[in-house]
Amino acid sequence: MPKYKLPPFNDFKQFELFICDLFNELENTNSYCNTDYQTFGVSGQNQKGIDVFSPKNKTVIQCKVKDTEKGVVYTRNLLLADLDRDLYNAFQLGFKFDRYILASTFRDDVLIQEKTTKITSDISGMATISYWGWDTIMTYAEKYPALLEKYFPQFFYKSKTTKKDIVELPESALGKDLAKKNHIAYLKEKYKNYKEIQFKAEGRGEKFNYAMFNKEIMNRYKAAGINFIPVDCFVDLVKFLEAKIDRTIIGKRNKAAGYKNYSAFGEPLKGVL
């Protein structure tokens, strides 16, 4: 059982984003560019039984915000009906998944859990179906204080930063070299812009997750932030970001047409597509 009694979400989009962030933390993934956990589609689209998905981990998650004012039995029956309908829709998708999770702001419920266990048995190895009620969700979420502070800031006291709290950058850190730091920022922004243009053109409602993009970089260099990456890693980081830019659809088209995707370090940035 969770230690805190935090109120469930009323906003379905916030709940989706919370679940997305939670699973990225739980499975230590880097969600961006159609890999790992990200929200699926946009409000108003037919999302075919999916709110959050991971092609890499072959997992789909349907998020349900429920108002329990009409009673436990009524809410449970709504979720059971949602499960049957949305699971059917999810199986109509073009990619295979191994896990289907119904996540809800409703409490943990034995009858719903029994239903998911039965479905898993009935479909015989096609996928594992499970139910995550609010109790289960919060039990896992409590392992990540930063996640709780992000979504429930009103319940967490944040002390004021003092000069003693400010961590001084080591001399060997990238943040100490303004020119190199700015070039990395330029390449990151270039990649972000290319991906956003690509997502918009594809029309599937995908959104670039800048936070998880940064997390991938931090994990790569075992750093607490861009500024703390050793400056000796600058050349490797540049190559890493350039390769990501070149692999985008726009990057491939530019290279095929003989256009530059980015300036080299020290070159003027003006005029680069």
Topology of helices and strands:
Layout (H helix, E strand, L loop, with lengths): L11 H15 L11 E2 L12 E3 L4 E6 L7 H19 L8 E6 L5 H13 L5 E5 L1 H8 L3 H7 L26 H25 L7 H12 L12 H14 L1 H9 L16
Outline the structure in words.
The structure is a single chain. With 273 residues, the chain is of the alpha/beta class. It folds into 2 domains: 12-155; 174-257. 45% of the residues lie in helices and 8% in strands. The chain contains 9 helices and 5 strands; from the N terminus they run αβββαβαβαααααα. Strands 1-2-3-4-5 form a 5-stranded mixed β-sheet, sandwiched between helices. α6 (178-202) runs parallel beside α8. Mean pLDDT is 83; it is low at 31-37 and 41-47.
Which geometry do the CA atoms define? globular
Order of H and E elements: HEEEHEHEHHHHHH
**In percent, how helical is the residue content?**
40-55%
Q: How many helices?
A: 9
How many E-type strands? 5
Q: Residue ranges: pLDDT <50 for 5 or more in a row?
A: 31-37, 41-47
Number of domains: 2
Strand content: 5-15%
Terminal CA distance? 53 Å
Largest β-sheet summary: 5 strands, mixed
Mean pLDDT: 83
- Strand order in space, largest sheet: 1-2-3-4-5
Class of secondary structure makeup: alpha/beta
Report the C-alpha radius of gyration, rounded: 22 Å
